# Entry
Amino acid sequence: MSKPINEQSLLEFTRCPLREAAVDESSRPCVIEHVAEDLVRFATLQAYEGSVPSLPAMRERAEMLYKTVAGSPDLVHSRNLIRLCRRIHDLLTVHDVLHPQSPYRLELGHASIDGDAAMLRVRSRGSVAKVLRLRPRGSPAVFAPDVVSLSRWLYTMRESGYPACVVYNYWILNDIAIKENFSESVAQNWLSSATTAYTQHRIFPSPGAHCKGCSRPCEDFKQCKTTL
# Structure
């Protein structure tokens, strides 16, 4: 029986051990992320059943969720909630929901990866499916694939009935979206390596002098203070 691994746990495991963790002045950015995930779950289900929630209804739900976790938002976070609701509403206005945000399990043989994802398709553009990946923060200028994108893409390609698919990275606090596409062999090999290391309690990845020669260094490496 394969060992189940949560996609976020696997993501944390594969992050560079030399990275300099970002310093959060408060836990409130995490609250925005929590609200975004819940709002997408609610809104994609409503849209899948026939109607996109109105923008006022989404704002009301977002504010209620925020207050439940962190109390009344200040002016900055109130503006972020408004921006978040507008972004998600815009997303569902131009897309059909093929599958609402729901759990998935990608079987790899020795292990499986569990997560949650929604699948969308632009109404006016062909049949390419988009598996949604919310990006609450981080710089789009330094962007590299990771195990969550690979896992969601490989599951969608194999199991959803829509093999022509991309990962749709959607920033919730600015007007940016980036598509990712992979080959099945690359995704399979990368995820197999990562999950094997995870189940065998190895260190992964193994940064070193070779990182200097990377043509597209990851954000973790750029933030690393250690001289390799």
